[in-house]
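Many introductory courses stop at the sequence. We go one step further.
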Amino acid sequence: YNVFGPEQQPRTEAERLMQEGEEAVRAAPDSPDGHITLGMAYFDIGDYDRAEEEFETAEELMDEAGVSTTIAEYNLAHVYRVTERHDESVDRLVVVVEREGDEGETAPDQLFRDARYWLGVEYLRTGRAEQTIVALEPLLGGAPFDAEAAKVMAEAHESLGDAASARALYLRVLEVQPDDAEAAAGLERVGQ
């Protein structure tokens, strides 16, 4: 089934992904790759129920094949995040972050950095500022400086009443990104 019709070509990236995913699932229904691609397309167009179904199918197929389910779990965490199921998102992201460095893990390094960032965001959204700081610390220790993670960590310090740590992080962000409105507003909140 081609949602675009027999002659119509996809116009957007989401449509292209959907077409690729549908073709991959049709060609190899037991392969998780097509389900991941199709899930990403559904996610991009805001059909989170269908995205979740595709990612869950991919996770089951990966598990049955004895391969890492990290990519499916990471994508499920994003579905949970945007549908405001933050505790479920945290649960998935914790599993993903714990797999970083595991022997045989095939997910790209950037996925683990992104998972750690989103875990920090989700911890903050669920009122766990201390856990936010712990989750994000590894992202701030090296180069390149992660300004987005620093802003989230600054908010966590701010929520804990640690204005000095928040101020230091906001200042560091502004050194790297002088026009960052969020960091400037944060600095104003905690006092310069």
